[in-house]
């Protein structure tokens, strides 16, 4: 693969995630941005006099918070969304996503005064209905989107029903073995994926209806950068290691496709969207789905074993990063243990951890499902409690089930609390997020005036020390550029700041 920018080498990739947080109202709907913790707000981004007027705000750690899905009652129906800054590794993307949980918790004072108004949950479904919350209404989905820089030629292949696209979709449909967040639906069936029911076709450019497995919307990261691959089939994972494996394995498969890796013997699913749904209803990992062109069916675990083995071969014969080796080793370990005993992944894979809690609760009530994850016919009160377990697992407050497990040392970790705490206040130092974070910090402290318009543009306001800068724009078109010479030149012209 040829270098993608003058700053990037063939091993570089931009990673990022976007998390829409679900809201469960305990009373009348309101604009939640009217009740933010403004003391905390002033420490993370520039706050104007009318907080409700914004649709997008950039933080000093390089990330962004916005009001998404506006409609119906306007801001009262908005979905709060946190997007990580541009990261240069899967591990960093995990770190800044987990920092986002801490930011959202403190920004909306979820353990304080707002605890009586609404719940904000990092969860992909709007169906669970634990006691005291009230009916959340019709079933909805909140998105967890993954972003990767990728090659222009691969982008064009993904727009067609090409071999590369079919290979990648087979990987995605089976990836839920570790990328699935898990949930139990109202009928009493446990699914690996919270998102599978909402994926309707193989490719499309839209993200809010007729949702595709592969989104082919053209969205450049900047004029000097590769395109952004916007993957909307992701899951609201709490597990650091599951998210790390999800992002890392996906980035590696993209690199293999960009490099022309031979996937001539790849298991290509006949209907990857239907396969995704079949695999989602299969916590026992036994269901098979049809392959394209031949009268043969295959399990998700077999597909993933193929891709993992191919990735191992690829990194052993090509320049590769330490993270890629770590990803492949962990990938192989997870698949091996899934093949032997899914329960050995308790504390690592979200869907396994939640399933263990639910099955334990059922056993206390003398219920032993005939098949793994089949709670169909379970008494309504018990099923509602299992749905409550599903939801409380995703609370981002300390009383959330996952966070309790983390505090007790019962989950496998990738990060330290110190790393996450640092990422709340600071951007990655090896992407343009570093520049954007510096801009936000100077705005917060009042040392400069202006606006961060979007991911790659800043406009100066009134500048007493250099009036000529008013209205000047700083373009940050290369996401790999953490220096930005035009920013350095204009900042220098302001004098000491």
Q: What's the quick description here?
A:
This protein is of the alpha+beta class and 497 residues long. The chain has helices spanning 38-44, 90-107, 152-158, 163-179, 240-258, 272-280, 300-317, 322-340, 350-364, 380-392, 401-407, 417-425, 433-444, 485-492; strands at residues 15-20, 22-25, 56-58, 64-68, 79-83, 118-121, 144-149, 183-184, 190-191, 201-204, 212-215, 228-231, 288-290, 297-299, 450-454, 457-460, 473-475.
Termini distance? Answer: 42 Å
β-strand amount: 5-15%
Structural class call reads: alpha+beta
- Helix percentage range: 25-40%
Number of strands: 17
Rg, Å, rounded: 23 Å
Dominant shape: globular
Low-confidence stretches: 1-8, 127-137
Question: Major sheet: size, sense and barrel closure?
Answer: 6 strands, antiparallel
The spatial strand order of the largest sheet comes to: 3-4-5-1-7-12
The count of helical stretches stands at 14
Averaging pLDDT over every residue, what do you get? 89
Question: Which terms would index this structure?
Answer:
6-stranded antiparallel sheet; 17 strands; 497 residues; 3-stranded antiparallel sheet; disordered N terminus; globular; alpha+beta
Explain the overall architecture.
This protein is of the alpha+beta class. The chain is 36% helix and 13% strand. The protein is built from 14 helices and 17 strands. A 6-stranded antiparallel β-sheet has the order 3-4-5-1-7-12. A 3-stranded antiparallel β-sheet has the order 15-16-17, covered by helices on one side. A two-stranded antiparallel ribbon has the order 2-6. α4 (163-179) packs across α7 (300-317) and α5 packs across α7 (300-317). The longest helix has 19 residues, at 240-258. It is globular, with a radius of gyration of 23 Å.
């Amino acid at each position: 693969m040829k270098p993608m920018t003058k700053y990037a080498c063939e091993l570089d990739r931009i990673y990022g995630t976007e998390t829409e947080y679900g809201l469960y109202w305990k009373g009348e709907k309101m604009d939640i941005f009217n009740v933010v913790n403004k003391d905390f707000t002033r420490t993370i981004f520039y706050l104007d006099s009318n907080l409700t007027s914004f649709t997008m705000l950039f933080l000093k750690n390089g990330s962004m918070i916005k009001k998404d899905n506006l409609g119906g009652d306007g801001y009262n129906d908005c979905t709060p969304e946190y997007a990580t800054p541009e990261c240069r590794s899967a591990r960093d993307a995990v770190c800044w996503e987990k920092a986002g949980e801490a930011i959202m918790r403190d920004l909306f004072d979820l353990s304080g005064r707002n605890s009586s108004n609404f719940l904000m949950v990092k969860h992909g479904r709007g169906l669970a209905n634990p006691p005291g919350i009230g009916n959340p209404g019709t079933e909805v989905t909140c998105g967890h989107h993954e972003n990767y820089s990728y090659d222009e030629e691969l982008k064009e292949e993904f727009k067609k029903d090409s071999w590369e696209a079919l290979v990648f979709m087979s990987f995605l449909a089976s990836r839920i073995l570790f990328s699935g967040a898990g949930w139990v639906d109202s009928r009493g069936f446990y699914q690996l994926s919270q998102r599978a029911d909402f994926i309707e076709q193989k490719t499309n450019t839209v993200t809010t209806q007729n949702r595709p497995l592969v989104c082919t919307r053209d969205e450049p990261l900047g004029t000097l950068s590769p395109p952004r691959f916007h993957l909307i089939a992701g899951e609201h994972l709490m597990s650091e290691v599951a998210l790390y494996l999800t992002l890392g394995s996906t980035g590696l498969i993209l690199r293999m496709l960009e490099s022309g890796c031979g996937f001539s013997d790849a298991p290509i699913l006949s209907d990857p969207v239907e396969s995704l749904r079949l695999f989602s209803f299969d916590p026992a990992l036994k269901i098979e789905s049809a392959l394209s062109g031949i009268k043969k069916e295959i399990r998700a675990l077999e597909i993933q074993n193929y891709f993992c083995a191919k990735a191992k071969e690829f990194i052993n014969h090509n320049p590769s990063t330490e993270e890629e080796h770590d990803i492949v080793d962990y990938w192989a370990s997870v698949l091996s243990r899934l093949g032997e005993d899914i329960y050995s992944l308790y504390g690592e894979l979200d869907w396994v951890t939640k399933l263990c809690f639910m099955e334990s609760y059922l056993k206390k009530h003398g219920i032993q499902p005939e098949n793994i994850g089949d709670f169909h016919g379970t008494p309504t009160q018990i099923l509602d409690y299992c749905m409550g377990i599903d939801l409380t697992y995703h609370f981002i407050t300390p009383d959330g089930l996952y966070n309790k497990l983390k505090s007790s040392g019962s989950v496998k970790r990738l990060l330290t609390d110190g790393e996450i705490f640092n990422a709340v206040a600071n951007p990655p130092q090896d992407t343009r997020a570093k520049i954007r974070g510096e801009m936000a910090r100077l705005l917060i402290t009042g040392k400069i005036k202006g606006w961060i318009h979007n991911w790659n543009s800043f406009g100066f306001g009134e500048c007493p020390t250099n009036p000529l800068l008013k209205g000047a724009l700083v373009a940050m078109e290369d996401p790999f550029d953490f220096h930005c010479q035009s920013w350095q030149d204009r900042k220098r012209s302001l004098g000491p700041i």
